[in-house]
Specification:
Blueprint (H helix, E strand, L loop, with lengths): L7 H27 L5 H9 L18 H13 L6 H16 L2 H13 L4 E4 L15 E5 L2 E12 L6 E9 L6 E9 L5 E5 L10 E11 L4 E2 L6 H36 L11 H29 L3 H30 L11 H6 L2 H4 L4 H12 L7
Parallel strand pairs: 1-4
Antiparallel strand pairs: 2-3, 3-7, 4-5, 5-8, 6-7
């Protein structure tokens, strides 16, 4: 049965990470982004304290926990105003896939570095013409002797410039059926034919977005992660944690915005009492808090199911958690800005930039409409429209 009350260990982890986040805070991250840098100090300290690899096996320097623990880390850093987006990508997606399906050599090569912060890996799945349809991925992998040759394009890939390699989703032909099936390949950042171009984003973050080109990139046989016949099983081993971590990212952001609004509503007086005494201010903030708490419960359920090895149930719960958290985050940020009025749009309070950032949880890694499609036909049994 899924726990609805956190263990003492989880509560202790949450408190410890919250304390770390407060030492850095929103102002730290804002300054780093303005300077065009990356929060190396926070990343390194998070690793040093053992939080970065919380989900990775102890045998490879990790904490021996699961996505439940890693989601707490991201949520609490986000609630402090300094989330680390690469937590979603490097230890959660890539670390999980390699830990579950990688060879012993791949585990030794990558997992200790993920845990101590010395190595990072990006994740490349999205393509210009595929969108949310993973069956339309056109990046292909073909054999050439014992090597693999990858060709294709990817877009909106986070952190490629700071990553040592990218875990690329390609498709290779099934020898039995002739159909294309997904496979995962580790592509080093300096591989011949592997190019990247930054995408000019209106949203400013420490982690930049890139378009990738793979022009006949030659990779050795051991670049393949897992069994080439496992297909979607290995892919969703990484995508379900991605959804849980996106929920954590959104909940943390929503909590940060809400805390700023509550503090302001408690102190700001226009007439004879703080504006937070008025129900028109207080009730929407209370609703935002309730929505965030409900989203966290679904996120915890999804993490529990995934860490328990129930991939099918985790898939449903992770999608629901991501949807609920995205909606709760957007509403919390919107209400926070509205509570502060004109001050909500100033740099001083650090909320205006979240208006754009909060939309990420609705859009990525899968749109809310595709989640509604999933729930309508997978959970409710309604016919598909696509």
């Amino acid at each position: 049965m899924t726990r609805v009350i956190e263990t003492e260990e989880h509560q202790a982890l949450r408190s410890a990470v919250a304390a770390l986040g407060r030492r850095y805070g929103r102002e730290y991250l804002t300054r780093i982004v303005a300077d065009g840098g990356y929060p190396d100090e926070l990343w390194s300290e998070t690793a040093k304290l053992g939080y970065l690899g919380a989900n990775l096996p102890e045998a490879y320097g990790g904490g021996g926990g699961g996505i439940a623990e890693l989601s707490i880390v991201l949520e609490e850093l986000g609630a402090a105003g300094c989330p680390l987006l690469m937590l979603v990508v490097s230890p959660a997606i890539c670390g999980t896939v390699i830990a579950r399906f990688g060879t012993e050599a791949q585990k030794q090569q990558w997992l200790p570095g993920f845990a101590d912060g010395s190595r990072t890996m990006a994740f490349g799945i999205t393509e210009p013409d595929a969108g949310s349809n993973s069956h339309r991925i056109t990046t292909t992998a073909r054999r050439d002797g014992t090597d693999w040759i990858l060709s294709g394009r990817k877009v909106f890939i986070s952190g490629v410039d700071i990553a040592d390699a990218t875990l690329v989703v390609g498709r290779t032909e099934d020898a039995r059926t002739g159909r294309l099936k997904p496979c995962l390949f580790i592509v080093p950042r300096d591989a011949d034919g592997f190019g990247r171009r930054p995408i000019d984003m209106e949203l400013h973050g420490a982690e930049k977005q890139f378009e990738l080109t793979l022009d006949d990139v030659r990779l050795p046989a051991d670049a393949l992660v897992g069994d080439e016949d496992a297909g979607l099983l290995q892919l969703f081993a990484g995508l379900n944690p991605e959804r849980v971590m996106t929920a954590a990212f959104a909940i943390g952001m929503g909590r940060f915005a809400l805390s700023r609004a509550v503090e302001y509503a408690r102190d700001r007086s226009v007439w004879k009492q703080p504006i937070g005494a008025h129900q028109a201010i207080a009730h929407p903030l209370a609703q935002a808090h309730i929505d965030l708490e409900l989203a966290r419960l679904m996120m915890q359920k999804a993490a529990y199911l995934y860490d328990s090895g129930d991939d099918a149930a985790a898939g449903e719960a992770a999608n629901m958690a991501k949807y609920a958290a995205g909606e709760a985050c957007v509403k919390a940020v919107d209400q926070a800005v509205h509570t502060l009025g004109g001050n909500g749009l100033t740099r001083e309070f650090g909320l205006a930039s979240l208006i754009t950032a909060s939309r990420v949880a609705r859009i990525a890694p899968v749109s809310r409409e595709m989640i509604l499609n999933y729930v309508s036909h997978q959970t409710l049994g309604l016919p598909k429209s696509y």
